[in-house]
Amino acid sequence: MYDLIVEDATIVSGRERRVADIAVEDGKIVYVGDRPAGGARVRESARGRLVIPGVIDGHVHFRSPGHPHKEDWASGSRAAASGGVTTVLDMPNTSPPTLTRAAFDAKRELAAASSRVDFGIWVGASAGHNPDINELMESGDACGIKVFMGASTGPLLVDDATLLRLFEETRGLIGVHAEDEAMLVALRDQHAADVAPDHNVLRPPAVAVAAVRRLVELVEAFKRPVHVCHVSTAAEADLLERTHGALPITTEACPHHLFLASDVTPDYARPDGLGGTTATGNRIKVNPPIRSERDRRALWAAIRRERIDTIGSDHAPHTLEEKALPYWQAPAGIPGVETTLPLLLTAVRQGRLTLERLVQLCCERPAAVFGLASKGHLRVGFDADLVVLAERALEPLEPSALLTRVGWSPFEGMRMVPKPDQVYVGGRLVAQRGQIVGDDVRGRFVRGPGVG
User: Fold this and answer.
1) Residue 63 — φ and ψ, nearest 5°?
2) Are 341 and 415 in contact (CB under 8 A)?
3) d(Cα 9, Cα 12) in Å, to the nearest integer?
4) Dihedral over alpha carbons 8, 12, 13, 18 (to 10 degrees)
5) Considering the chain, what is the average pLDDT of its residues?
6) Of 210-219, 226-235, 258-267, 401-410, minimum mean pLDDT range
7) What's residue 440's pLDDT?
8) Which domains does the chain have, with CATH numbers?
């Protein structure tokens, strides 16, 4: 007696599609093929529908501990599940920051108590010595070491000497927010008297490129695996493409850099039935900034050439009251964990992306980059994280459909593919058509590969 059988599913991998049944037992896929022998406690027909692995979002800020009025593990994970994300990896810039074993374990307890999806945790690096980093990485508890080369949200920032020491003294994956801090400071000083400066002027592409160039030098010297978060510019993409296959550098792009532009309203966002309007002002203040249309198109080109490895939402919610503050006080960050998959499915519908490539970017490659051995594929022995998709008409995104605690999105009004029909975490139904139906489902802590 299986726990679940999903019948007649059109299973999509990064390379192919096949029609088969999926049988699940104890949270794992135990059979994929023609009719399995035996019964099931739950039997679901997926005839005429597509089934992909659960999305792995390697870049979320669920704000807990420290700022639950923006998001906590209950609200953030509900939003994730509603949008087809079944595994999240949370960044360390909470309050307190995740710098020690004690802070790591406290965050893990918070997540275990209320997360509806599986979860992993990044450990942070800071300018001071952090003796717990190696233990957290060697044990496989931390999914990676997050480094902020340029100041962003929270107190985490490393100088070049600390960065060099991390490459020399630690092991495992380093994830990097790549902006050059010295250049940022000089630009902030230069524009300190401006009431409402252009965010792209304060954090221009050259700031990101300088940091990425330094990273390439360090990886060349140490051959250390590095994951470059939120690549946002044509220049970064070009520089990183030259290292592709030669160095252990992987890359992430974010939906807000793929679907928003600072200088034009993109084709998909014109009021012609394909989209809504492009958000402006502090609502789209984010680090690194929303870039030009040229940069946006360059990122899509890099995706088509398979030079971008993963898509991460960089879900970083702030309240509308906080976003309404004057520029210098308004925080940087955009909510997005629940709109990532609908946006990318809309790109599939419009011919910008294939569904197979989407599965690579959102499922298979994140599992490989972060060492999540049981995730990313719909195969025997893998976790039964399933997302069932149906062909439905595009719908405008309404704030009432959002489950993030802050209740807003820069994509409000845009016509996009609706949220998935069904989302299963470990074989248990957690969301249906954007609504949470498995409030008793709790996600599990996922471990990295360890480096001991």
Assistant:
1) 65, 10
2) no
3) 9
4) 40
5) 93
6) 258-267
7) 87
8) 55-369 (3.20.20.140)
Segment 142-148 shows an average pLDDT of 96
- Whether 314 is catalytic is yes
Could you say which of 3, 314, 383, 385 is catalytic? 314
The radius of gyration computed from the CA coordinates of the chain, to the nearest angstrom, equals: 21
- Orientation of helix 181-190 relative to helix 205-222, angle to 10°: 160
CA 1 distance to own-chain centroid: 36
β-bridge mates for residue 31, sequence order:
23
Query: What does DSSP say about strands 422-425 and 386-389: parallel, antiparallel, or unpaired?
Result: antiparallel
Read off the amino acid at residue 47.
R
Q: Who wins on pLDDT, 372 or 265?
A: 372
Neighbours of 313 (CB within 10 A): 30
